[in-house]
């Protein structure tokens, strides 16, 4: 093969096809948002996943590891490690549930709440500036559509689990 001739490409690798591929589009969006969020998190030395767990706990106040997994869509082993890391830094605490002694509940400490609350406006601003290219009605529609797609993924995941 002549070195100056272009290498053959798979027809599935064309940029036009990649642009219309939902996972590619969502991944690009999340990677872009996460890159901006990482800059905001840098002074705290938190990872994106640690921030997401703290965010979930701030929204719900207290949750079990399995509830955190479900709410953040992060694997249980990873959530357990993140909670350990947050606990070591004094940002989260664990305690046995009063309702069921077998369940361990996780919550943010006062320090964790303060750290999260200092970061939250920056995180919200990143999303607001990004979404500002959409009209409010388009933003609501986008959230509704993404919610429906997520519900479908969850349904398919559950069906796959039932068949295993």
Keywords:
single chain; mainly alpha; 7 helices; 66% helix; 164 residues
Please characterize this protein's 3D structure:
- With 164 residues, the chain is mainly α.
- The chain has helices spanning 15-19, 22-41, 48-60, 65-72, 76-88, 110-131, 136-163; strands at 62-64, 92-96, 104-108.
- A three-stranded antiparallel β-sheet has the order 1-3-2.
- A hairpin with a 7-residue loop joins strand 2 (92-96) and strand 3 (104-108).
- Helix 2 (22-41) packs across helix 6.
- The N and C termini lie far apart (48 Å).
Order of helices and strands: HHHEHHEEHH
The main β sheet shows up as: 3 strands, antiparallel
DSSP helical segment count: 7
Cross-sheet strand order for the largest sheet: 1-3-2
Global mean pLDDT: 89
Runs in which pLDDT lies below 50 for 5 or more consecutive residues are: none
Rg (C-alpha, Å): 20 Å
Shape descriptor reads globular
End-to-end Cα distance: 48 Å
Q: How many distinct beta strands?
A: 3
Content-based structural category? mainly alpha
Percent range for β-strand residues: 5-15%
| Helical amount | 55-70%
Write the layout of secondary structure elements.
Layout lengths: L14 H5 L2 H20 L6 H13 L1 E3 H8 L3 H13 L3 E5 L7 E5 L1 H22 L4 H28 L1
Antiparallel strand pairs: 1-3, 2-3
Helix pairs in contact: 2-6, 3-5, 3-6, 4-5
